[in-house]
Design goal:
Blueprint lengths: L3 E2 L4 E3 L2 H4 L9 H8 L7 H4 L14 H16 L3 E3 L5 E8 L2 E11 H5 L3 E2 L6 H14 L1 E2 L3 E5 L3 H10 L6 E4 L5 E7 L2 H12 L4 E5 L1 H16 L12 E8 L5 E2 L1 E5 L7 H8 L3 E6 L10 E6 L2 E7 L13 H10 L14 E5 L4 H9 L5 E4 L5 H9 L10 E2 L10 E2 L1
Parallel strand pairs: 6-11, 8-12
Antiparallel strand pairs: 1-5, 2-3, 4-5, 4-10, 5-12, 7-21, 8-11, 9-10, 13-20, 14-18, 14-19, 15-17, 16-17, 16-19
Length: about 400
């Protein structure tokens, strides 16, 4: 069993009518609005609660059954069709002048289980359960796992050659991101890709820890229920898009807090001085380097620069998200569990610093922090030593579309 393999993808005949934002970047109401007037939007499959009464539990059996029904309806109407033979696909994303091209492939669950496909985040059982139920109901993986690898000259050269050809699909999504797809069905090209990836030590999960964990659970269950299991069945692999590390774009992942832990703004500033140089700023603070933070408090922006003696020599503890947690959240604001504490929320950098101001000015939140983005080198260093990054450490843009290619089981 190889690290990756080609597969016969399920694709829309008209991508413009189908592709949708990833299931986990929209809430139910946002998905309803996005799919309004679009009967073939993939949101009817990935967020099928939008087709049920408003009070429906999005994790109920009725929702997964509705997703299956909608998938079958798109099959019957020839909105979706499976390719005739196994192939790879090149998937290009273009946003604001940034371009990246990844490989759509089926990645080996066994290599995920033995950490050749490396993780850097913990998962939540409820979110895993949701993806397991969705995969089982559809008998398909529709949400790709976003993987990365240390760029390789052979793949770079082949990608450069193949993307000079006319694409099979090119569509501009509602957010302005251009999604482009090329089919790679040449036998020699497929062999080159498979053997080159097989020579790599590992792949890294950038985004999609719950999807990959769910795929592993589904595979284990199906292996146990299949007396004729060989290892070659589709369920032994999971849908992925694999980008070279030097093309990846990580944005800041910022934080907003609901209260000041009983402290006044003046007391917050006084305590911050123990770990940071604190300076009032006339404009919103977008950190320009690691160790620098912005803080929005009481209608004012401050620039925080952490004292050098507060930066440990450790791949996890030295991350900016860790420095903020260990020197502000746990010590001053009494937030010790970022995964479960309801006092903290997270804002992707794509929303801008104005979103931090809006949430504080509205009274919903009391304080906000802007961060410098985590780097790909930091992500891979943490994964290589089998450690875990704090929750919400990375925000990748542009996002993959759901529905452009799916993997049938």
């Amino acid at each position: 069993m190889s690290l990756i393999r080609p597969f016969a993808g399920l694709r829309p005949n008209n991508a413009t009518d189908v592709i949708a934002p990833p299931y986990d970047v929209l809430n139910t109401e946002e998905a309803r609005l996005c799919a309004k007037g679009r009967p073939w939007s993939f949101l009817h499959i990935s967020k099928p609660e939008i087709d049920l009464p408003a009070d429906t539990d999005p994790h109920s059996e009725a929702v997964y059954a509705k997703g299956k029904e909608n998938l079958q309806k798109m099959f019957a109407a020839n909105i979706l069709a499976q390719d005739a033979k196994s192939c790879y696909y090149l998937y290009g994303l273009t946003m604001d002048g940034h371009n990246q091209i990844g490989l759509v492939a089926a990645a080996n669950v066994t290599d995920y289980n033995n950490n050749r496909i490396r993780k850097h985040e913990l998962t939540r059982p409820d979110k895993e359960d949701d993806r397991v139920n969705q995969i089982d109901a559809l008998n398909a993986q529709t949400g790709p796992v976003f993987l990365t690898y240390k760029h390789h000259s052979v793949i770079d050269e082949l990608t450069n050659t193949l993307t000079k050809q006319s694409p099979t699909v090119q569509v501009t999504a509602d957010d302005g991101v251009i999604h482009t797809l090329w089919i790679v069905d040449n036998v020699e090209h497929i062999k080159t890709i498979t053997t080159t990836f097989e020579s790599m030590n590992c792949l890294y999960i950038a985004d999609g820890h719950h999807r990959s964990a769910a795929a592993s659970r589904v595979a284990t269950k199906r292996q146990n229920n299949n007396p004729q299991h060989t290892g070659e069945e589709a369920y032994n692999y999971f849908l992925s898009v694999i980008f070279p590390d030097n093309q990846m774009k990580i944005l800041d992942y910022n934080r907003v807090i609901r209260d000041l832990n009983g402290l006044s703004p003046e007391q917050i500033l006084e305590q911050l001085a123990n770990s940071f140089n604190v300076k009032l700023n006339n404009t919103a603070v977008k950190p320009q380097k690691s160790g620098e933070f912005g803080m929005y408090l009481d209608g004012k922006w401050y620039k925080l620069v952490i004292h050098s003696d507060k930066i440990p020599n450790d791949p996890v503890a030295s991350l900016d998200v860790s420095l903020l947690t260990n020197n502000v959240f746990s010590t001053i604001l009494n937030i010790t569990d970022l995964r479960r504490d309801k006092r903290i929320d997270f804002v992707g950098g794509i929303r801008g610093l104005s979103e931090l101001e809006r949430r504080v000015n509205s009274g919903e939140m009391k304080i906000a922090f802007s961060l410098y983005p985590t780097s790909m080198q930091q992500l891979m260093a943490v994964a290589d030593i089998e450690q875990i990054m704090p929750p919400k450490s990375t925000w990748f843009e542009p996002k993959l579309a759901d529905g452009i290619v799916s993997h049938l089981l």
